[in-house]
Description:
Number of strands: 5
Strand content: 35-45%
CATH topology: Trna Endonuclease, Chain: A, domain 1
Low-confidence stretches: none
Shape: globular
Amino acid sequence: MTTKTKKDHRKILGEKGEKIAEKFLKKNGFKIIEKNYKNKYGEIDIIAMDGDYLVFVEVKTKSCADFSEPETWVDFKKQNQLIKLANFYLSEKDITDVNCRFDVIGITLGKDNKEKIVHIENAF
């Protein structure tokens, strides 16, 4: 597989995972505010309301060929990036009086099209 093909595959896999995560969140009562919010620090996959909480959601997706669990891929560096993104978002939208949290959703897609979804609320 060429580097470009690998990158395209990861992008397609990521987009599929984000759609699955969005459906999962809606089913669990979340109201989706924004998807793929971008600023100079990067991108937040999903921004949603869960009751009184504004939730910044990072989605990680893998095929069954990978060994580690996708929800473990959000390391300290990624957490700091997401915090910067969220602060920028809050400032840009002039949001000051809301409880916020960061959730991580790990999705594993099996060969038989089975989905394993792990949702970690208040992950960091």
